[in-house]
Design a protein that fits this description.
This protein is an alpha/beta fold. The chain has 8 helices and 11 strands.
């Protein structure tokens, strides 16, 4: 390869699984397995450079061109709408974006619905799609407590196992959409490194298929 492909990986457990897929797809970088605190790893022989970033920042690195490709959750792509190409669903980090409320909740249709969430755009888009006007209360954490204290009627958040909801006497009342990790590309990079990016996408798609068999 005559051009280095820069790949932004999300830090944490998801990132480890993502790298496992890249390695299995034929894009290894042995130094990434070594115990160290480095953030950038390169395999010059195959023209690949990986770097670790905060999961919510991957799309920014890709959109701005610091990374040619990266892996970001569908929730991030829908919430922030970065100007990138979505290449394939890797089938990792599967969960659901849901509306949840206290058990036994009955909506008061005589006033505007109060919705607590850190995914304001996703929540607004969903309720707009069903013709409902809402009052969004944007929070950055502990979303589950909002309806319990009367700050909101319902919440919109990612649900993986549902354990946190159950432990707080909450339940899912609507599933908005499924969430999983997606391989994304910078638009200019895709134009100038088309062959390499397509090759990576095809091989990662195969790995995703193998994982889901």
């Amino acid at each position: 390869m005559d051009k280095i492909i820069n790949i932004a990986l999300p830090k944490g457990r998801l990132g480890d699984k993502v790298y496992d897929m890249f390695e299995a797809a034929g894009f290894p970088c042995p130094s990434i397995r070594e115990p160290n605190r480095k953030l950038v790893f390169e395999n010059e022989e195959i023209g690949i450079r990986y770097f670790w970033v905060k999961p919510s920042d991957v799309a920014i690195y890709v959109e701005r061109g610091a990374a040619d490709i990266g892996v970001a959750g569908k929730d991030i792509l829908l919430e922030y709408k970065p100007d990138v190409y979505e290449l394939t669903d890797l089938g990792l980090g599967k969960c659901r974006m849901c509306v949840a409320a206290p058990k036994g909740y009955v909506e008061n249709t005589k006033r505007k619905l109060k919705v607590a969430t850190k995914f304001s755009r996703i929540a607004q888009d969903y309720y707009s799609s069903i013709g409902k006007n809402i009052d969004i209360i944007h929070l950055n954490g502990s979303i589950e407590i909002a309806p319990l204290l009367g700050l909101s009627d319902v919440l919109v958040d990612i649900v993986e196992t549902g354990t946190t909801l159950r432990e707080n006497n909450l339940e899912v009342i609507t599933e908005i959409l499924p969430i999983s990790a997606r391989l994304i590309s910078n638009k200019a990079s895709y134009k100038f490194k088309t062959e390499q990016i397509k090759d990576i996408t095809n091989k990662m798609s195969i790995q995703a298929g193998l994982r889901n068999d």
